[in-house]
């Protein structure tokens, strides 16, 4: 069972002092002042992130009042009972929920990083469940193993987990399926070899073990993390640093979460500028799409909040610059083919993740592909992205001249074909050092560019190998029905092209392949802050009370998966998720007992102190940060 750490008196909600001065937020070693370049990470704040992740802190034993328990329980499909008289702590039965409520195993135990971690910790308390979790981990390792080692890895997995005499035997996988796996492994060690076996294990875990988990202290602790995740987010949640660039409705600046030290990019959308341009629908659409997509290859939305003058999107910080800068301002224009192929493969994975959510991007170009500290890319700026309803097509003549597909230029209906055309344009540009349909710094009328796109075959120089030329030709096919990626199998068609034969896409998708180029941490891959033009003041526009409905839809606070990843990678989860070795119940989860004593100030208080002190400050009164 969960319990107190030795010497602790308040369990999870007795936060320990962070590294550095007691009770002070962790900051960059040089203090709040960052260099003129793009800010460096504080502690581990700018790691690349990904699809897996972990979680964050929860309320003190005395703090979860009735309304907070209701909110946390609601976020996980549970109901919570009000606290008893005299401020007594809530009872465990409060989290059991009603029979009619949906409790999603996939969401609670696989998709949400903190939920996944706590469910696994629960499974480790029972040998029969622990074996299942270890088997799933072994399959994950098999799937990302190098091609030359996959067969050996598969044989070891079968011997350890699927043979009846093995100490770690998993009986949930029937012998007939084991025999089939052995036979297929000898013929061809496919990455999908254990797909059916893992499904059986998840089916098993999602019934009785999942029900037991929902009635455990581990799930009660998960509810505490959800309570903290849903706390209000304001400008005082962050420190603001230098301006990085400009968006359509305002500036983009670097920012840092005060409580964790995590660095992000804050995209500000000025309320008056949005209203003047009638951009409410576009802004909300981008926010909702970013919120929906969880991909290693697309920028993540971690927070959405509002100030008096702006709506703010807090996004993945990408310190390595954009592809346009690297193509044209880092020596001779263009890349060597292996580098171009690596970026094309990662972009293909990002498009695949978007298309799986039925989202067509429609604005793929070098400026919108950003590099992180390690040299991996992410797709950014989803302002033109749109959801395509199942079984339907859409219409819209949007995009950037020179990258718009023929069917878009002709204003015809489409689904995802424009993105594969734009990928062809981008691969061509990365290798050739110029766009296929317009020359850099040479003015060509829009009508002429569109004529070239519709009617003229692009030309290839000696820079293109036969494989690279083949890929571009197939992606730049004028007929969308014949275009690579549009023939029924989507991204798989592109991944199977010979240009990518040397890439293991499973390892790529897991972030296990080293990029061909790593940005210099001392270099600045963006404009100097003095070279970024200032926005002019918006005149003749007044904000009205009726605008608040739109602002409330936008400013929804933390986004669960990125927030939980932040808590794990900054080690807040590890620091607060304290278990005991004696099997006792920690006071913060002992809902039959008395409230725990008020914990000392420390890590957890950092999540609340700024809002308590500065919650009523106006934008102009915000604590300044030196640049």
Automatic annotation (TrEMBL):
<feature type="domain" description="RGS">
    <location>
        <begin position="111"/>
        <end position="223"/>
    </location>
</feature>
<feature type="domain" description="Protein kinase">
    <location>
        <begin position="238"/>
        <end position="500"/>
    </location>
</feature>
<dbReference type="Pfam" id="PF00615">
    <property type="entry name" value="RGS"/>
</dbReference>
<comment type="similarity">
    <text>Belongs to the protein kinase superfamily. AGC Ser/Thr protein kinase family. GPRK subfamily.</text>
</comment>
<keyword id="KW-0418">Kinase</keyword>
<dbReference type="InterPro" id="IPR008271">
    <property type="entry name" value="Ser/Thr_kinase_AS"/>
</dbReference>
<dbReference type="GO" id="GO:0004703">
    <property type="term" value="F:G protein-coupled receptor kinase activity"/>
</dbReference>
<keyword id="KW-0597">Phosphoprotein</keyword>
<keyword id="KW-0723">Serine/threonine-protein kinase</keyword>
<feature type="compositionally biased region" description="Low complexity">
    <location>
        <begin position="53"/>
        <end position="64"/>
    </location>
</feature>
<dbReference type="InterPro" id="IPR000239">
    <property type="entry name" value="GPCR_kinase"/>
</dbReference>
<keyword id="KW-0808">Transferase</keyword>
<dbReference type="InterPro" id="IPR016137">
    <property type="entry name" value="RGS"/>
</dbReference>
<feature type="binding site">
    <location>
        <position position="276"/>
    </location>
    <ligand>
        <name>ATP</name>
    </ligand>
</feature>
<dbReference type="InterPro" id="IPR011009">
    <property type="entry name" value="Kinase-like_dom_sf"/>
</dbReference>
<dbReference type="InterPro" id="IPR036305">
    <property type="entry name" value="RGS_sf"/>
</dbReference>
<feature type="compositionally biased region" description="Low complexity">
    <location>
        <begin position="1"/>
        <end position="26"/>
    </location>
</feature>
<keyword id="KW-0067">ATP-binding</keyword>
<dbReference type="GO" id="GO:0007165">
    <property type="term" value="P:signal transduction"/>
</dbReference>
<dbReference type="GO" id="GO:0009966">
    <property type="term" value="P:regulation of signal transduction"/>
</dbReference>
<protein>
    <recommendedName>
        <fullName>G protein-coupled receptor kinase</fullName>
        <ecNumber>2.7.11.-</ecNumber>
    </recommendedName>
</protein>
<feature type="domain" description="AGC-kinase C-terminal">
    <location>
        <begin position="501"/>
        <end position="566"/>
    </location>
</feature>
<dbReference type="InterPro" id="IPR000719">
    <property type="entry name" value="Prot_kinase_dom"/>
</dbReference>
<feature type="active site" description="Proton acceptor">
    <location>
        <position position="363"/>
    </location>
</feature>
<dbReference type="InterPro" id="IPR000961">
    <property type="entry name" value="AGC-kinase_C"/>
</dbReference>
<dbReference type="InterPro" id="IPR044926">
    <property type="entry name" value="RGS_subdomain_2"/>
</dbReference>
<dbReference type="InterPro" id="IPR017441">
    <property type="entry name" value="Protein_kinase_ATP_BS"/>
</dbReference>
<feature type="compositionally biased region" description="Low complexity">
    <location>
        <begin position="72"/>
        <end position="83"/>
    </location>
</feature>
<dbReference type="GO" id="GO:0005524">
    <property type="term" value="F:ATP binding"/>
</dbReference>
<feature type="region of interest" description="Disordered">
    <location>
        <begin position="1"/>
        <end position="108"/>
    </location>
</feature>
<dbReference type="Pfam" id="PF00069">
    <property type="entry name" value="Pkinase"/>
</dbReference>
<keyword id="KW-0547">Nucleotide-binding</keyword>
<dbReference type="GO" id="GO:0005737">
    <property type="term" value="C:cytoplasm"/>
</dbReference>
